[in-house]
Amino acid sequence: MGHGDRTALVTGGARGIGLEIGRQLADRGLRVLVGARQRAAAEEACRAVGRAALPLALDVTSAKSVTEAVREARELTGGIDVLVNNAGVSLDGELRPPYLDEDILRSTLDTNLTGAWRVAEAVVPGMVEAGYGRIVNVTSSYGSLALMNSGRHPAYRISKTALNALTRMLAAELAGTGVLVNAADPGWTRSGMGGPSAPRGPEEGADTPVWLATLPEGDSTTGGLFVERRPLPW
């Protein structure tokens, strides 16, 4: 089965890196489901992604929204072969430990960790049944324990560290099923989160997630963390 027969779901796909990931996946021949909290935003993004794109109202912080969106996706396309968990927030501002804002921590984890977990739970059974799947969790080097040398952006960093752990656990549980699970750091990229002064454009930021999302059949790359297509220490 070629990429043209595959369907990819990109959460947080209406702007920034998510939009570019969708565009690059469509360029490779995949049908792309653009997930966004507001359907109007998803519809607008689909015009930028191309004719192979379909809009999907998807709020990863709502279990009901995830269930309904995945049901709609299956009705539209028959199934989801690729999941890019790109939806994310960074809410810390200048907060640093030991100071804690519990509301910020809860909101950050609900999107960056639990949201990704919710969507994975909804799509993995279909992937296992089909014997094929690619899951890419968009993370950050800020979540790497080996590289953690400051307390900047604490809730964001902890959420990405936890997302990395989820990546490892999913990869281990799905070994041998044909479903590959990896994490991708897009680098500091110009976007709503990265800001206008970031050195990398969305095209560069999307490259590693798209590479992992389109690993060929027979590839065994799973349970890894990558930046610029190279391994990054956990």
UniProtKB/TrEMBL annotation:
Q: Which keywords belong to this entry?
A: Oxidoreductase
Region annotated Disordered sits at: 187-207
The answer, when asked if DNA-binding is one of the entry's keywords, is: no
Question: Which InterPro entries does this one have?
Answer: NAD(P)-bd_dom_sf, SDR_fam
Q: Name one Pfam family in it.
A: adh_short
Which family does the similarity line name? Belongs to the short-chain dehydrogenases/reductases (SDR) family.
Protein name listed in UniProt: SDR family NAD(P)-dependent oxidoreductase
